[in-house]
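[audit] Reproducing an earlier prediction to check determinism. Same input, same settings, fresh worker. If the tokens differ from the archived copy the diff job will pick it up downstream; this log only records the rerun itself.
[audit] input (272 residues):
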Amino acid sequence: MRTLLLLSLAIPALTADPLCTRDFLLAAANTLLAAQTAGNPSLLGPLSASPVISQNEKPSTLTASILSTPIKADHTRHSLDTTQCATYTEFISAKGAKPYVNGYQLWFTNGTISKVDALTTTTGDWLFNATGTLNWAAKEDWGVIPVEKRDSRAVIKAGADAYLDIFSDKSVVVPWGKPCARLEGGAYTGNGGANDRCDVGIPDNVKLVNRRYVIDETVGAVDVMLTFGSLADSHEFRLEGGKLRFVHTITPMNGSRGPTVGKGKGRKVRRG
């Protein structure tokens, strides 16, 4: 009985921060949209006294980051992680003078934004085509999943990890969905039909490391920011019934930290 009592007392320490409600996270994520649209990072908040800013896996500052560039959004979507107190935002701008497809993770400590992890892509980046990205992203259903049909955090994370692990270990069993479609840059591995597949074009012997997860069980989503060989990268997944349904990737190539992965001399190879 004493052991059970001690365990019950310890459980609250493992639960989500009570400050991190969905309403709180959504409001903060919307300040990110306001800041990006206006090109005014001071609109982002609530900020900690000294937030850590990263852009394309390089240290930055808010004033030097993409948030200081005004960009009109044509499509946005948030994932809200109340367990880790974090958000992920997909941001597509296809109709402006300069197109962008960006992803942002916000991390919170004591009710303030303590870390901003941004990936930004534009013309010249991997398979970049914002018009194509917008077209397919707008057609997909990333809506709320009924409570009784939702996958657990563990299942969602395991599905993402299996996909990412197969790049270096082809023996990994991946929970491929049928259908499943991957949106990579502006390229789509299907046509929106029942036979779409996302188990195509995956290279060998590439380590996907330094993974940072934002998980939202309500929509079956997990975004994983990571290092793809030598490149900054985001792979976002939606799982339905424990199976992969959608995969979105963002990979900056300009100003990469080292040799590119999946690109040969004079040719491009689909890299998954």
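[audit] rerun output stored. Observation attached for the diff report: The longest strand covers residues 100-109.
[audit] end
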